Amino acid sequence: MKKTTILTTLLITSVTLSSSLLLSTPVFAATTEENQAAQEKIISDSSRKLASIKEATQKASESTNETTEQLTYIGIKIQKTQTAIQQLEDIHSLGNVHTSENSEENVPLTIEMSSVTLDEDNNDPLKEKKERLAELSQQQQELQTDIKSLKEEQANLHKQEKQLSEKIDQAKKQTTEQAKQVDTRTAVVAAAKTHLGKPYVYGAAGPDAFDCSGLVQVAFASIGHSLGRTTVDQETAGTTIAVSEAQAGDLVFWGSHGGTYHVGISTGDGSYIHAPVPGDVVQIATVASYAPDFAVRVLS
């Protein structure tokens, strides 16, 4: 009985997860790709732990059923032993009454108790039955304690299973959202690339010529995202970040906040697309060749 509980406890302990692991907030990576990889790792690790917990839950359930059956069996034996003790006590009681009332007549007394067998070699069968009852009662208490512990362990496992399932669902949801973001960012860059080679014309916003902010406005409009027409309008369209943190679809600016004079769209690889100056065309340039002063994240 105890052995079963100890083995089950050891198994459960081997897969028990710390609350910090279950409830910790995912750490967002520096890039979308790293973030996606982090969420996929959470899903993979949590799924393995969830499988282990489900296995432990099954074993704990089997142990509970087995222990419950043992408890039922012990209960039946206790009832039979109690009945036997009562019958033996009745025999002793009747024997004492007969002795006191018929001591001079020496009349034989015959009592039929078919369910009780008296061992001629045993001087005190009643004492033996009572000792057996004590042993059975002790076993019953131990089994009841085992069942209580197993049920507590099962409840804890169910709680962990629920937390892990929620963690996996959350990671899957974030992965889906990140995939959509990647698609959106890629779409912005792809839209801007369709205009490569078109001439720069001040104040133009396509379809055959662009200035820097006109190119940005048209590229974002292609994904249904409305931006202001000027660089100053566009620099307030999102959250300011360092140029080194720029991902595909982020905007890169030249000049100070409130006084920007040029904007491009980051491709996420240390380059950007922009419409540079009169006499030039829409093109891809590198941060190393013409470094922006800051970046803005428009798409979350």
TrEMBL record:
Coiled-coil segments on the chain, per record: 126-181
Source lineage: Bacteria, Bacillati, Bacillota, Bacilli, Lactobacillales
Keyword presence, RNA-binding: no
Gene Ontology BP terms: proteolysis
InterPro entries: NLP_P60_dom (IPR000064), Papain-like_cys_pep_sf (IPR038765), Peptidase_C40 (IPR051202)
Organism: Enterococcus termitis
Protein name as catalogued: NlpC/P60 domain-containing protein
Record keywords, A-Z: Coiled coil, Hydrolase, Protease, Signal, Thiol protease
A Pfam entry, by short name: NLPC_P60
Recorded family membership: Belongs to the peptidase C40 family.
Gene3D superfamilies per record: endopeptidase domain like (from Nostoc punctiforme) (3.90.1720.10)
